Amino acid sequence: MEDIHTGDASHYLSDEQVRQGIEAMFFAYRGFTHDPDRILATMAYGRAHHRAIHFIARSPSTTVNNLLGILGVTKQSLNRVLRTLVEDGLVESRVGKSDKRERHLRLTEAGARLERQLSDAQRARMREAYRAAGPEAVAGFRTVLEAMMEHELRRKYHAIGEQDP
Amino acid sequence: MEDIHTGDASHYLSDEQVRQGIEAMFFAYRGFTHDPDRILATMAYGRAHHRAIHFIARSPSTTVNNLLGILGVTKQSLNRVLRTLVEDGLVESRVGKSDKRERHLRLTEAGARLERQLSDAQRARMREAYRAAGPEAVAGFRTVLEAMMEHELRRKYHAIGEQDP
DNA sequence: CTTGGAATGTCAACAAAGCTGACGTATTAT
DNA sequence: ATAATACGTCAGCTTTGTTGACATTCCAAG
User: Per-residue DSSP letters for chain B?
Assistant: First the structure.
């Protein structure tokens, strides 16, 4: 019996299994963004706005630079999104207190309202998937996702919601 | 059976837990596409080409219409991608035998080579994540992802790799 | 056999959201 | 004083998505 898999090839590491995981990831991500996308399509906003709003809500008073690191886009790209959000009164940009070069971002009341609307839709699907899959599956889900992240992003993932970023 | 999964849904269904899952999904998807993206950036191709190549490899002789349903884009968008792939000799488009309106798509030798290169990179990360997380986590991962899909996409997900689509 | 509709391809125009490069302006650090 | 940092902005380009319109080919129903 020849073993095409060099080394420790258990059954769950077969190419076929891994491929199915890749496809599951692809299809699931579509579901993941589907509900917020539908809401955003009715306004002049897109997925990029959603991401900015999400992480500003999660880390109130975050700086532009910090947000850049989380989102992984250029400042020009983020600035375009942020500018419209500030103009539309959804995000507030305050000059830093200790370091006046920094801008600290937070949602306004209207921004928080939109965030809640988007978040509710996205969480509803996630919650239903969690409920259907059960707590052990959820734990595994989280474990694998974390293992898939880039090293640097895993660090940032854990830092979110903490006091001193 | 003690700690977190007590049958009491309140813990793992808390907003905080669900939000963390959403963020994990966001960061993990970046890792998921990172390696193929790096390879594609050295050529004149992007993520859209990768997706087309992947699903043509998985369902040889698939039709354009079938591919449209899987990828969820417009025919114009897919056609642009497909045209360059055909022109570059990575994909072959054959007129259908029973229904001559249909075009059946398959990878050429060169196309299969690129597919392997992209697939190897993506699978390596996936495989490593699977290995690190362990088989039970992988099972949970797959279960939750499937529960996150849109109904119609879940159907398509299961249909891939079967004989009669 | 004619014809309606399905599957496909293609043209044009546009939008969202990413990118690079260059430059300006505060502000802070050295 | 000078250098580095944080931010904003202008200009231009790319990828990948969208509509809408239209031609071609072909199957199937009348």
Answer: --SS-SS-TTTTTSHHHHHHHHHHHHHHHHHHHHHHHHHHHTTT--HHHHHHHHHHHHSTTEEHHHHHHHHTS-HHHHHHHHHHHHHTTSEEEEE-SSSTT-EEEEE-HHHHHHHHHHHHHHHHHHHHHHHHH-HHHHHHHHHHHHHHS-HHHHHHHHHTT-S--
Cite the DSSP H helix spans in A42-134. Answer: 47-58, 64-71, 75-87, 109-133
Stated pTM of the model: 0.90
Query: Model confidence over A17-41: pLDDT tens digits?
Result: 999 999 999 999 999 999 999 999 9
Nucleotide nearest to B79 (CA to C1'): C9
**Distance between CA atoms of residues B33 and B31, nearest Å:** 6
Contacts of A69 in chain B (CB under 8 A): none
pLDDT digits (tens, 9 = 90+) for B132-142: 999 999 999 99
Instruction: Write the residue in A19, A30, A138 that is nearest to B140 by C-beta.
Output: A138
> The tokens 């077969």 sit on which residue?
A14
pLDDT in tens, B46-94: 999 999 999 999 999 999 999 999 999 999 999 999 999 999 999 999 9
